[in-house]
Amino acid sequence: KEDAVKIITSEKSFLISGDAKAVDASLCLKYGRYDEDKSEYVWRINLFDPRKVDYNKGDAYRANISATVDAKTGKILYFRASTPGYYDKDSKEWKDINVKYSNDECKKVLEAFIKKTEPEKFKDTKLSNDLECGYVLKIVNDKNVYGGYSYTYNRYNEGIEYSYNNIYGAVDGVTGKIYAYSTNWTDDIVFESPKGAMTA
Fold first, then answer.
1. Residues 6 or more apart from 70 whose CB is under 8 A from it?
2. CA dihedral sign of residues 104, 105, 109, 115
3. Are 161 and 170 in contact (CB under 8 A)?
4. Residues 6 or more apart from 116 whose CB is under 8 A from it?
5. CA torsion, points 159, 75, 16, 88, in degrees to nearest 10?
6. Whole-prediction pTM value?
7. What's the CA gap between 144 and 88, in Å, rounded?
């Protein structure tokens, strides 16, 4: 458990709040079923701020991080961190926080992490979409100003898209840190060759 938690907390490209000090982790079957020959085990980890939320005092945010790590390889399979809230309930105003990192800068952060974690899978993907979204940083003139960017990389085989498999990530534009990451990938799939298929 300690090793799995350290893999998450030591990843410098992740958005990790210093307040997320409490740890809850459990060893589970990856797919929830037991198969003596094919079973894969994962550590499901939750890091959180142990302080109780007091909504009467304006507490609307407590750091919470959930992650999944392959119990044998140590590979990070899933990561999700809560993003800070920038609305002041007492003054009823949004804090003056600005997006410091551009879409392109955030994309480079995510792609560097994916290339390090899943280099072979990343080679077989193409960027499907990049969206300015994630969470509301503030509202200006009744319009949402978003604080992050999200990216989806769909799987391709011999130039043909297989959108059922993808790699997803989201990066905080304020800190330049990854706050969401996941892979949806079928490892044992066998693709039929597209040779001989009718053209469009």
1. 30, 40, 41, 42, 76, 77
2. positive
3. no
4. none
5. 50
6. 0.86
7. 16
The separation between the first and the last C-alpha atoms of the chain, rounded to the nearest angstrom, is 52
Query: Residue 176 is which amino acid?
Result: G
Average pLDDT over residues 158-170: 94
Residue with the larger pLDDT of the pair 39 and 138 = 138
What is the amino acid identity at position 200?
A
- Please give the torsion angle defined by the CA atoms of residues 94, 95, 99 and 100, in that order, rounded to the nearest 10 degrees: 170
DSSP per residue, the chain: -HHHHHHHHT-TTB---TT--EEEEEEEETTSS--TTT--EEEEEEEE--SPP-GGGT-----EEEEEEETTT--EEEEEEPPPP-EETTTTEE------S-HHHHHHHHHHHHHHH-HHHHHTEEEEEEEEEEEEEEEETTEEEEEEEEEEEEEEETTEEEEEEEEEEEEETTT--EEEEEEE--TT--PPP-TTPPP-
Write out pLDDT tens, residues 4-39. Answer: 999 999 999 999 988 888 889 999 998 766 665 667
